[in-house]
Every structure is written in C-alpha cells, then in structure tokens.
Amino acid sequence: MLSTFEQELRGRIHGRRALTYVEDLVGAGDRFVGSDGDREAAEYVRAKFRGWGLETVDREFTTFGYRHTRAELVLPAENRRFEAIPPYFSPPTPEGGARGGLVFVGGGEEQDYDGLDVEGKIVVLQEVGLGYSRFWLGTFAALAARRGASAMVVIHPLPWPYRMSLEAGNGRLEHRFCAEQIPVVCVSAIDGAQIMHAIGRGGAQAQLTVESEMPEVGSSNVSGILRGSEWPDEQLIVHAHRDHGIHPGANDNGSGFGTMMEIAAALVGTQPRRSIEFLCTTAEEGVTPGVAAYIEARKQEGTLEQIRAAVDLDMFGVGGKVKLVELGLWPDVDPIRHTEWLMRRVEIVADELGYDIGRMTSSWGVAESGRFLENGVPAIWYWKPDDFYYHSIHDTVDKLDGNALKAVADVTAIALWRMANDDDLPRET
Ligand SMILES: [Zn+2]
Most CB atoms closer than 10 Å: which of 185, 364, 383, 401? Predict the structure, then answer.
C-alpha cells in the first residue's frame, strides 16, 4: 500500500517537466566525452544540484575521446556522394582518402570471405539481424583488415546511417580494442541499395574519406547527494549518463538523465534515513569506462561498500514496453545477472502504482549497471531496446514519451524512498 507521503511524492513528478531537462541537455550540443558539450552538461548538472541544496562531488578521470570532422563515401563513376557516419574510434583514412573496388562480404563473418579477394579493396558489409548485431564492429573490421581490405562500409537496415563502435564488444576493459583496425563508415539502407546496384553492375569503385581523431581527454562524474539522517554514509545511487553516441541523443540518454533530474527535484527537502546519491556519468558510450572510473575512485577512497544499491536509468523514452534487464551477455565474461531482490522491489512498487514493467535479456552487452554488479554492488537497469532512432541524428526530443519517463520516475522514486528507510536491506547482488 502506498503511504500518504508516497502518494504525495508521486504527485510531484511530471513527465513534461522531465522533458525540459532533456531539452536543456540536448541544448549543450555535441557531448561525447571530453567535448565542450560534455563539460557544459556537467556544469549544468552541478548548478542544478547546488541550486537544490544537494552536496556535490566531482570525480575526474581520463579516457579516449573521439571526434570526426569529415566522413563521406563517393562513387565517382556514378557521380554519387553518400551520407556516412564513422563508428566511434574509427581511424582516419590516409591523406586523399581510401580508394578501391567495392566487394560485398555479406554479414562479414569468416566464412563470408571464402573465395573472395579483398586485398586493397573496400568491403561492404550488411547488418543481417533485426536489431544491432553489428553494433560492436571491432572484430568485423579486424577480420577485414587481416584479409587486406583497406576500409569497410556497413549498410544499416534503416533509412538513415547510425553510429556504431569500433570496440570489440567485450565486457573487460582490457579487451576493449582489437589490434588491427581499418577506417569504417555506416550508410543507410536506401544508399546501401544504390551501392549494391553499382556492385551488381560490376567494377564499382569508391573513395572513402574519414577525418577523425581519438585524443586522451579529461571529464568527470558528477554526484549530487541528499544526506541521510540516520545512516548518512550509506548510499542508494540512481545514475544516468549524459554523453551520447551522436547528437542529439534525446533518448540515449536524455531520457534517463531527465528522469533522474525529475526524481532528484521531487526528493529535495525530504529526509531519508540513508543517503540518496544522484550520479551523472559520462563515457558510457563504448564499454562504459566512465562509470568504471567512478567505481575505481570509490575503491581507492575505501567507500565502495557504502553503496547499497545502484539504479541505472538508460534509454526508455522511445519504443515498446519498459524492461528491467535481467541478464546481460558479453562474449568474454560469464552472463551478468541483475540483482533479483532489487528488481522485485521495483516490480512491487510498479504493481502498486498500476504500471507494467517487463524483463529481458540483453544479448549485446550490459550498460553501466554491469560495472556495479561485477564489483559486488546490487544493481538494476531500466531499458527499452527497440528504438529505431538509436544513435542517429533522428534521436530527437519530440520522439520521447514523457509518460514513460513519468512511470519510471514514479516507480524509482518510491522504491528508492522505501529502500532508503528500510532497516533491513539485503547485501547480495
Ligand atoms: Zn545509453
């Protein structure tokens, strides 16, 4: 049963106001880790937290940034130039671009190269799944590089290109990149059909240009803490990443960010017994080095055990049902299981409020929640996996369903409140 206070708390949360935080975040511009927009967004969060009277803590770290100033694919004989997006961490092409014949290699697996000579050529690879099975491109690019290809083009199954990653898609940070890499771009399904037509006619030649850099950059994870009255040194964390794959990133992850800010605003002025920490991370894109740095800092400080639970708000403003990710799969580590008791706490609140939240398995890795779990901190992750606009320039605020943000904020705020005041909180992950 909801208490009077819980009903009042729910009443303070507004879906449309949550969207205004998303608009502000998007307004900071490009915010890949280390960019000016990333810094501006961090400053915005700090100012909000301070304005609300929360204690703020910054934890700085360094990691790889990425920016590309130019990416284009040209078929000179056809007089065609295609919109192209390199995956983050794609190396640049040599001066003057990569030139070569186009060779179609299907899904780009080992056996797809049988009988093909791709030496010095640009390989064209097609997404073969319904979803994003070729998101982690590192191993595919490494395979093409070992066969002697000079560059790679990936055809997305949707009418626009999207931003992938040239990381290997492994869970362990030390396995982040493959040794061999070549320049890669993504093109839309519509442009892909034109490219396939040119290949079908025979002798298609292309020129690919990627101008990019991958500097070492500094950034910070920003916390706003609502101090607990009885166990102030124990924290329940609710976190959302502010960076994106490509601007504007309204759903990924403006949706989680706006929801976190709305929860924070609703809880300001209350007195939980445990502390509630609102954590705005960055460098989630890729294999979450940002939150990994946060956890490392807490280990160094000797305060990691003070974290009693972590709730990851990441990407649920567009798509079907809101899900809790039960299981996350990486190729190089055992399946990562999210914390059952924590999922149950959230589901009980959702039931009481009359909301419908499902469960799912993520077959292409785990977001930030995985870093908490592998370090012994109970954790959960809310996600909607079916956003067509994912990592494209069409991930705009107008696509977001403010009601989904409201539902997640209602459930999370009340679940956090109960856990913050509970005498007996489990320790197991
Ligand atoms: Zn995300």
Answer: 185
Q: What is the pLDDT of residues 39-68, one digit of tens each?
A: 999 999 999 999 999 999 999 999 999 999
Distance 156 CA to ligand 1 centre (A): 19
Q: How far is the CA of 53 from the centre of ligand 1 (A)?
A: 28
Query: Nearest to residue 236, comparing CAs of 422, 30, 2, 77?
Result: 422
Distance 422 CA to ligand 1 centre (A): 30
pTM of this structure = 0.97
How remote is the CA of residue 34 from the centroid of ligand 1, in Å? 17
pLDDT in tens, 282-330: 999 999 999 999 999 999 999 999 999 999 999 999 999 999 999 999 9
Q: Which residue has the tokens 């890729």?
A: 286
Give the model's pLDDT for residue 133.
87
Within 14-163, where are the H helices?
A: 15-27, 36-51, 138-146
Burial class for 227, CB neighbours closer than 10 Å (0-12, 13-18, 19+): middle
Dist. CA 219 → ligand 1 center (Å): 17
The CA-based diameter of the chain, rounded to the nearest angstrom, is 74
Ligand 1 centroid from CA 69, angstroms: 23
**Structural contact between residues 253 and 275, judged by C-beta atoms closer than 8 angstroms:** no
